[in-house]
Amino acid sequence: MRRLTGGVALIALLSFGAQSVVLMMWLLPVADDLAGIAAEQAAMAQAALQAAPREQRPALAARMSAGRVTVAAERPPGAEDMVALPSSDLSAGERLRHAIEARLARRPGQSFAAIFRLQVDDEAWWLTREYSAAPGAVSGTLVVWLVLLAGVTVGALLMSVRLIARPLGRLAAQIALQRGTLQPLPERADASAELQALVQAFNALAQQAAAAGQARQQLLAGVSHDLRTPLARLRLRAETQCEPAVAEALAADLHALERIVDQFLAYVQGDSGAALGVPEPLDQSVREALARYAAGGPAVRSRIEPVTLAVPDLAVQRLLLNLIDNAQAYGRAPVEVVLQATPEGAELRVLDGGAGMSEEEFQRAQQPFVRLTRTRGELGHCGLGLAIVAQIARQLGGRLKLLRDGDGRFGIALVLPAGGASQG
After folding, report:
1. Where are the alpha helices (DSSP H) in 52-107?
2. Are residues 329 and 379 in contact, defined by beta-carbon separation less than 8 angstroms?
3. What whole-number distance in Å separates Cα of residue 252 and Cα of residue 322?
């Protein structure tokens, strides 16, 4: 918008400069006409005074003085700017034109007088020609042109805002409301051709992204579903046909595989917009998730404040369990879950005593199938844990952030606004 405004303003200034040059070029013929008339009057007055007897010259000068022309023997004020007749190098008309141009440059819009010194025998007579209408007309014309150009500039800016900047702002707002998901935008028939082309290109990109995402969902869902049956058979054979030591080792590997399959399915379900659960008070959903985790996992500390914000229970539990699993796998005990109310809504934190990660690593870890360490695959992690957490946070209308508390502990927090998602 700034560049567009600057461009329009520059065009307006250049246009005004060009119009000023044109007006000054138009002024030159006007100055020539004025110079010719004054030169003729001066020449006629000099000839008449030369032909008249000396004693009759004052009366003749009085008769020739009329209107803007004054002929007198007294030196008029301002005679230092006089134009003398005759001249050997320049005609009287050219000298007067130069005088008119000089006065226009010095005092635009003000009246002035062109003074001729008429040499008659041994006497000096003075012819004064006053000018006021021409400079005023030129100044008025320039003011009118300036007002017109200012109006055109303002109109161009308003049109540019109306036809370009404002529609682009609405388009950017519509894209921002999609919260990271590409969805086709409505095509308006009254939009400009450039804006329609932009919307069509974006919609084509959204369709391609949707097709690629659907293909990925079908692949992950199919692979995950097909793996469940052979995994169940392997677990059964390990328990019934293998030695206890071998069965225990196989059970650990099978558990890692099952966890990867569960993550695949969880990510596919979230990406396809599956139900997030039934809206329940946030503190109740967190307590249920912790009770479920305590049944088969390591101990987790908790500090749960009363928060009655209604949030889908399945989404909260899935998000919290993934954060706890990551803290147990890559952090350092003890792991603590903290829920507290904030002026904006609520904040759910999962803290541990590990070194944590940088902001750049945190952003990378939220992408699907991104592993920050080589050992994650051995632990049953496939790079979907934080991707699922980020996915659920977007669906709830919240955001994730890194934490460092006063004790040096690392954590990840879910920040939920008071108007967060409550759909099932």
Report:
1. 57-64, 92-106
2. yes
3. 19
**pLDDT tens, residue by residue, 244-266:** 877 777 777 776 677 666 666 66
Rounded Cα distance, 268 and 163, in Å? 41
| pLDDT tens digits for range 84-127 | 444 434 454 455 555 544 444 444 445 666 777 788 888 888 88
* 392, two tokens: 């659920």
The distance from CA 74 to its chain's CA centroid, rounded to whole angstroms, is 71
Burial state string for 348-363 with b = 16 or more CB within 10 A and e = fewer than 16: bbbbbbbebbeeeebe
Give whole-number Cα distances, 36 to 42, 97, 280, in Å.
10, 9, 97
**Residue 372 φ/ψ, nearest 5 degrees:** -85, -20
C-alpha 127/C-alpha 146 separation (Å) is 37
**CA distances to 81, 133, 332 from 27, in Å:** 21, 13, 88
Tokens of 141: 């014309």
Burial class (CB in 10 A: 0-12, 13-18, 19+), 93: buried
- Provide the residue type at 35 as one letter: A
Region 305-323: what's the mean pLDDT? 89
Residue 334 burial (10 A CB sphere; 0-12, 13-18, 19+): middle
DSSP 3-state of 413: strand
Rounded to 5°, the CA angle 326-332-338 comes to 70
Phi and psi torsions of 367, nearest 5°: -85, 145
**Domains, in order of start, for the chain:** 2-139 (no CATH), 183-274 (1.10.287), 276-417 (3.30.565.10)
pTM above threshold 0.85: no
CA-derived radius of gyration, the chain = 45
Dist CA 72 CA 127 (whole Å): 7
Angle (deg, nearest 10), helices 313-330 and 282-294: 50
Joined tokens for residue 129? 């020609």
Dist CA 220 CA 271 (whole Å): 11
pLDDT at 223: 64
